[in-house]
């Protein structure tokens, strides 16, 4: 029976892993190499190598309701898209509320994790740690949860940029970027158009003489601000939206791309990518189009070579007198404390069953948590992984055979390669709702949609038509939380609260209440009919026009808030 668990890292994944252990009656001990919690989301003026870092201006891409833990809604007063310091405050409040700090040993680095000689029987691990002062200690644990993330090892492919070693200016990886201080009046080239590249280009363009944003493949750019000024990730992210996307993927993709190009033409702006929208995580940036239209950021193709202080691009254009080159070229991943070969690399990804459990272990007593990405927030995914892993540790859930897990990894890898524009440093992408639901199904916490619609239609409609917020996975089963229903019913109130800094007068509308009631009753009947129809037939037989209206409904009914 597993009792003691070593948790490596006290970032968002580590914190929820500690809590999941406590929820299952396990004894977690967390080792954090720095002096505080937060991981990636704790800004460091002078970060240490091997640790994640962010720049001073970072605003989180996911809204607070989508990135929250499933039994800990964010305070209503917090902005929907928080500054990194506010997210750190939320994580600190989470740790204080559930009394997690007493389980964390700060300034303690895990040096090695090795199987004990009797591992096939005990499943135990020897974990060697080192304090900042140099003292080393070895402890034995029944299980290990690795929560170190994948933004710690900067990828700097200098060989791809001939002449960089003789560059007369300064170059560095985006990991080292703190702020635009020191870039005043400079000519800056940013290489790479991921989220960091876009942010840094915008940030630097406010003080630099000129910023050039170099990209090999382009990117789809989305805003945090959606229809009606609501958080963009709360719209079009319902279970119904996901169902329609699954039934008509090409149509939904075209519709999404047309919507983005109505905001600004990606081809005109030089950003049009080769891949389709859902094939790769888009760049989330509210300001980049404005910096491009004002000429403060000029989009350029990939760099061919560097000559002195001049940068030559693949289209033959040359920018002279460049002062700074920032490489926003992503990260490598590494687990130097684990045994060599334990996390075997299978093509574009690690050989991890469900992105959590390594194959080849006699006992499933080591889990990797939070080593994943999706079109959405990581926190709920990491929390679900931690809840699932701790149930496996306790023996309440059993993993399939080694062969079955290997076949699952191969199928998942094939899907990854065929569906997503998979890069070597981005092998971790999953579909948010299907991935969450698959694990929730095993845990017994997947929401019973039909039951909710019949017994509690106010909650059921929000689960079906509203954003797929994490609270849905606390409505039933192990870890059920009595506050889940209320959290779902009040989520739009928390969205609206931070906007109420000035309350302008509203025109009177006598028909609003009755219209809303009619709409809700109509939707209730429609959903019940569709649910019944779905159980007997297939939604693929429904008319496309009706599905289009269904897909549009969530954006119509946000007046519920």
Automatic annotation (TrEMBL):
Its EC number is 1.-.-.-. Its cofactor is FAD. It is a single-pass membrane protein. It catalyses: trimethylamine + NADPH + O2 = trimethylamine N-oxide + NADP(+) + H2O; hypotaurine + NADH + O2 + H(+) = taurine + NAD(+) + H2O; N,N-dimethylaniline + NADPH + O2 + H(+) = N,N-dimethylaniline N-oxide + NADP(+) + H2O; hypotaurine + NADPH + O2 + H(+) = taurine + NADP(+) + H2O. The keyword Acetylation does not apply. Keywords: Endoplasmic reticulum, FAD, Flavoprotein, Membrane, Monooxygenase, NADP, Oxidoreductase, Transmembrane, Transmembrane helix. GO terms for molecular function: flavin adenine dinucleotide binding; N,N-dimethylaniline monooxygenase activity; NADP binding; trimethylamine monooxygenase activity. One of its GO terms (cellular component) is endoplasmic reticulum membrane. It holds the Pfam family FMO-like. It comes from the Eukaryota. It is found in: Endoplasmic reticulum membrane. Broad spectrum monooxygenase that catalyzes the oxygenation of a wide variety of nitrogen- and sulfur-containing compounds including xenobiotics. Catalyzes the S-oxygenation of hypotaurine to produce taurine, an organic osmolyte involved in cell volume regulation as well as a variety of cytoprotective and developmental processes. Belongs to the FMO family. PANTHER family: DIMETHYLANILINE MONOOXYGENASE. This is Flavin-containing monooxygenase. The gene is si:dkey-239i20.4.
């Amino acid at each position: 029976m597993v009792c003691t668990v070593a948790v490596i890292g006290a970032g968002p994944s580590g914190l929820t892993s500690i809590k999941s252990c406590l929820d299952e009656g396990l004894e977690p001990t967390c080792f954090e190499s720095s002096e505080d919690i937060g991981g990636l989301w704790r800004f460091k003026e002078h970060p240490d190598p091997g640790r994640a870092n962010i720049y001073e201006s970072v605003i989180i891409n996911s809204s607070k309701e989508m990135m929250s833990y499933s039994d800990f809604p964010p305070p209503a007063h917090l902005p929907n898209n928080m500054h990194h310091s506010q997210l750190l405050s939320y994580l600190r409040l989470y740790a204080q509320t559930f009394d997690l700090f007493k389980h964390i040993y700060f300034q303690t680095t895990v040096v090695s994790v090795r199987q004990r000689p009797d591992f096939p029987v005990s499943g135990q691990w020897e974990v060697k740690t080192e304090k900042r002062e140099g003292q080393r200690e070895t402890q034995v644990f029944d299980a290990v949860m690795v929560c170190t993330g994948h933004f710690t090892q900067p990828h700097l492919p200098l060989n791809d940029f001939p002449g960089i070693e003789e560059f007369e200016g300064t170059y560095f990886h985006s990991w080292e970027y703190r702020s635009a201080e020191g870039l005043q009046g400079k000519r800056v080239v940013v290489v790479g158009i991921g989220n960091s590249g876009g942010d840094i280009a915008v940030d630097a363009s406010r003080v630099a003489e000129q910023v050039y944003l170099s990209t090999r493949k382009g990117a789809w750019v989305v805003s945090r601000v959606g229809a009606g000024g609501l958080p963009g990730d709360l719209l079009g992210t319902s279970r119904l939206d996901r169902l329609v996307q699954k039934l008509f993927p090409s149509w939904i993709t075209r519709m999404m791309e047309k919507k983005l190009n109505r905001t600004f033409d990606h081809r005109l702006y030089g950003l049009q990518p080769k891949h389709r929208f859902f094939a790769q995580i888009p760049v989330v940036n509210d300001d980049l189009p404005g910096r491009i239209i004002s000429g403060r950021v000029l989009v350029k193709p990939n760099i061919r070579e560097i000559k002195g202080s001049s940068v030559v691009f693949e289209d033959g254009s040359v920018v002279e007198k460049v002062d700074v080159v920032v490489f926003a070229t992503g990260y490598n991943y590494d687990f130097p404390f684990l045994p060599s070969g334990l996390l075997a690399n299978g093509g574009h990804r690690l050989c991890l069953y469900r992105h959590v459990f390594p194959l080849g272990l006699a006992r499933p007593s080591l889990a990797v948590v939070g080593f994943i990405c999706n079109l959405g927030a990581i926190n709920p995914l990491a929390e679900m992984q931690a809840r699932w892993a701790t149930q496996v540790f306790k023996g309440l859930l059993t993993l399939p055979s080694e062969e079955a897990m290997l076949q699952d990894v191969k199928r998942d890898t094939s899907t990854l390669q065929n569906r997503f524009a998979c890069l070597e440093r981005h092998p971790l992408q999953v579909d948010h709702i299907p991935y969450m639901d698959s694990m929730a199904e095993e845990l017994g916490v997947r929401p019973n949609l039909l039951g909710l619609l019949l017994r509690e239609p106010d909650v059921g409609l929000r689960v079906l038509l509203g954003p797929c917020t994490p609270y849905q996975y606390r409505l039933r089963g192990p870890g059920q939380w009595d506050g889940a229903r209320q959290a779902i019913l009040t989520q739009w109130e928390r969205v609206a609260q931070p906007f109420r800094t000035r309350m302008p007068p509203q025109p009177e509308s006598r028909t609003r209440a009755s219209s809303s009631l009619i709409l809700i009753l109509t939707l209730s009947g429609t959903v019940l009919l569709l649910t019944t129809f779905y159980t007997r037939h297939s939604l693929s037989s429904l008319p496309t026009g009706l599905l289009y209206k269904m897909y549009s409904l969530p954006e119509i009914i946000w007046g519920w808030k």
